[in-house]
User: Fold these one by one.
Assistant:
Number 1:
Amino acid sequence: MRKVDVTVDVTDAVHLGQTLNTVATVCLPDTVPADPVVCFAFPGGGYSRRYFTFDVTGGDEGSQADWHTQRGWIFVACDHLYCGDSDQPADPSALTFEHLAGANHATVGHILGLLADGGLVGGLAPVRTPTVIGIGQSMGGATLVLQQGQRSTFTGIGVLGWSAMHSVNWTPPGSPKGPARYFPRGTNVGALTPEVFTEAMPEMTLDEKGMPAAVAAFHFDGEPRDIVEADMIDYPRRRGNPPVWASTTIPPCSMTMMSPGAVAAEAASIDVPVLIAVGERDCCPDPMFEPKGYPRSSDVTVYICPQMAHMHNFAVTRTRLWARIQAWGDGIWAQRRPVCQSTK
């Protein structure tokens, strides 16, 4: 697999009065099909594009990007603005979900243009008829829904670990439900301080070891303890020596995704295939009810992966999820092929 880092100027897509760039990693299979699936992947809050490209647990299957490229896909892992290696606006509180979605849409368009004219890397033939899908985990799922609903970027979207109804952190059965907080979308939400974060989600308050109470919502039983601690200690501040898959910054507007129906209007306008994939412990309270949020789509799939919590790519069952995503994406590719005519 070849990996190519691409920097994309998204200044004109966000209009924040300064030059801004996003960064993505394009992962290419050894042999690129003439009409491949191109999958763009967007991480959640507190994570970078390396959540998809780094072999987190050292298993034989490698990273998620490895897994899909070994099966013929072009896989593009993207950093949102104000996350990972992408630029940070001078005033982070001015950054809205619409800005994130606009920047991601511009990133997709630029990379597809490079693939189409053969300008991505030497020796790669032009890729002009791809099947373009998007997947987004947690905050990445929220921005993906908004982007698709407003801009129709993709032929299909996979919403991973996020609810179009109301995303809430998993708590053990019988736990008291906290009040739902409403953060108006598109307004100045101010700095995302630890105090603001834990006021909205008390279950993320850190204990004396720096571990949030909601660690079981993010990591399922049986995951390597050193990986869990590396991921969760001091989350989401990520001070000191953060893991390679982490982002030390989270857009303040991410708080708005915890509001009930944060992007419900966009979800209701999506008319392409939708994959709703969650772990058995996740931020989606009622996965089987989620298709109701996508009334214009005639193709909504729900998959609940066992032994998996919110951070899917750390789970021991992660390849089961990847296989389901691969089959779903290949199915969209097949639907775009000419229908065979009966010879009778």
Note: The longest strand covers residues 2-9.
Number 2:
Amino acid sequence: MAAYNAEKYIKQAIASILQQPFEDFELLIVNDGSTDQTVAEVQSFEDPRIRLIHNASNMGLVYTRNRALEEARGEFVAVLDSDDIAVPDRLQAQHAFMQQHPEVALCSGHAALIDEEGTATGQRFIVPTDDVNMEVFFGNPFINPAAMFRTAILRELGGYRDFAPAEDFDFFLRVSEKYPVANLDQLLVYYRVHGQNTSAIKPAKIRKIETDILKDMYIRWGMPLDDRLLDLQYLLFAKNYEAMSIAEVILVMNMLRKANRESGRFPIRDFDALLFKKWYNILMIKKPGKAALSLLLGQEWSDISFVTFKQFRRVFKQTFWGLFRKKKNRPFKA
């Protein structure tokens, strides 16, 4: 747990860990030069599992996370931000999963949003639980304060790099390139939304950082992209489909398909199936009308065996009504 001026929420975060039925852990808290009562709040707990260490001054989140990594003594590292709350069985569920799946390097899970007062907003962050390694091209598939990973692998990869406030996503990408990763299909944390969250940072800054991370990934993948294609890839990654034409979506997906075939990173059919699933979802958002069916099945990654009956029915209805509307609106000729 990295902590900087966290006096308002840190007691709730700490209590949610100390009350876990799984008890074989140390709660390592790194105070990053706080100037409020954060330290006093931590010291109000009398629990030998808490280990509080201090940076000499405010060094920032990347330094603080890496300091925690250096100090960690467990086989696994679980992250919890100082303003969030872990569900009661979080550590037990993740530890059991990691023990049962020794090939998995990293796992996370779902989060429910709470406001500044701790009241549930009714919203949730739902992470993908299938094809998680491949999902990194279509958005960050992990929630950082719900993450657990193997300490040795984090150290092997050199810890976090200077991509704050998206250093976690950069780390997740590098792990997923070398090892299987996973998400549990269950709620693990209550994620507090307030004015200091990463989501409150200017969108232009976040876009620049995440674009740099994606660019770095493509360089490692042997696929350096020109600026236009990188911008389009970011729009796809950010799920900003409204800002893309259908032709631009096809361009990016063809690039991803080609890159996978050249690199051999994922099984070809599995990756094509994921491209098809994303393509179907995007078409349902963009509603291309009478062209829906031909667009769905007319791409290089499209395979009739990927289509479910429900998908075919929805696309067929959109195509049919697109044709019907055109005929209905045609001027009458005597």
Note: Confidence is low (pLDDT under 50) at residues 327-334.
Number 3:
Amino acid sequence: MKHEALAALETLNEEDVRLLVDNMAEADALVFDADWGSWVREGQMPPDPSTGSGQAGWRQWLMLAGRGFGKTRAGAEYVSAFARANPGAAIALVGATADEARAVMVEGPSGLLAVARGDERAAMRWLPSLRRLVFASGAEARLYSAANPESLRGPEHDLAWCDELAKWKRAEAAWNNLRLGLRRGERPRAIVTTTPRPVPLLKRLRADRATVESGGASRANPYVAEDFIEAVEEAHGGTRFGRQELEGVLLDDLEGALWSRALIERSRVEAGTVGTGGQVGTVTSNCPRIGGQVGTVTSNCPRIVVGVDPPASAEGTCGIVVCGLGGDGISYVLADLSVTGMGPEGWASKVASAAEAWRAHRVIAEANNGGRMVETVLRGADAGLPVTLVHAADGKAARAEPVMVAFENGRARLAGRFPALEDELAGLIYGGGYCGPGQSPDRADAMVWALTELAVKPQRPTPRITRL
């Protein structure tokens, strides 16, 4: 027979439900909490297995919701039910980090241990040192960190639960490896519980015909303290941040983004039109190191610099961005020549080639990754290369803000289209943090160093690089 508190839910409104829960005896609260099927809300309910494209139905259940909506509880309940019904199942639990996966997905107040039924909880074995949870049925879940995508290469799973995917730093690699390992059982699937952010992977998952989406706003959860809801809505209600974090709405522009998409478009001019009075200057460089071809670059800038953000590893991206100060007093982004997957000699050669082709006055390189080694490598690629090392004392967003101001007041512009660079600019937010593609805004950093030299610092004449 249904517990009397559960039966009462059918006749109560949201406010009365909250009062009932707040005043419930502990024993009743435990019974009430355990009967998930009686009080699960719309947005938390698992989709019908046949929903979605193909004969096997959906492959990804994507739950986009505001903070406090109950995403974690819904994910834990689904995984628990799956383990109960599939004794031999192998399940992947993937968090932004291993610590977060453990603290939220397993040990948290809405995690797998907390939602286990009384008899099941006693039979479960949680082995934190092995990052392994064995359910009462014998099904086994293993914890993974999205920050270490290689750990997902190889293991096979029947089901994956991915938590806060929008904040994964290496989302693309982690998801790709995980997806290739979802090949056990008749219908291997993934559930994704996350507060939305406009990251490329999340957008792609939403567009996938095999994805079923659900979710809701923070206020939809009647069991969250009303004081919390009122406080956060008073602070953030109506803002873009509030729409994302409280309403669970995916927005193209992050709240507090340094570069909005509108600012980027407003700052754009056509390539080849920078200069004085609309005149275009052409510099021709016979530079075989640029793609093995003669390089012809268009610019009418009395001063040109190449900004460089060296990679922390051989697999990373070396940001290489050419910027120029025009005769009109405006600084322009002229080229994004960034490269990925090159060792020090490789990317240093590309920097030297860029400086030669554009007849740059100076190379501005961040020295935090390797210190003087960066200068040594760059000078080794070209003994005559004038290099200035800069050190990142402030966060990326703090360094970028004066440059963004230059864009806002028209002192800096984009001479053409640079999609990869622009996506990184749109991922930088006020107060620190980066939510764009990749682990780090390497291209944006390189641009910031170059434009700091041109548009922010006082200028003084310097010689131009010229080959005889």
Note: The two ends are 93 Å apart (CA to CA).
Number 4:
Amino acid sequence: MESRRRKAKPGTPRRVSAKTVPSAAPPSSTAVSLVLPNLEAFLETDGPEISIGAVGPIQCAAVAADPHNMLAALVRRPGETLQQLLERLDAAVLLAMEQDIFTDDINPPPSRR
């Protein structure tokens, strides 16, 4: 069967109609809201970086760093939801910001000789 989609002429920029772009679903009563006050506060500091994704051989990790320190590097646990991982990252960022306790699940501690 032949496609009914019109092909754009070469060199013509493609435009997407607002009707074809799905909008975010309206919040429902079953939606879970993310309340991460420590990550919010961290994002207001100078040069924050938060990354979620693969790190080397680790399939999923969450890392929070500023220009001077890595505050937290967490490995996603088996069965852990993304929200649970972000909540752990939020708690780890609080420890780093208030008590200078840095959490690192990715890099092994230096060996003592």
Note: The two ends are 71 Å apart (CA to CA).
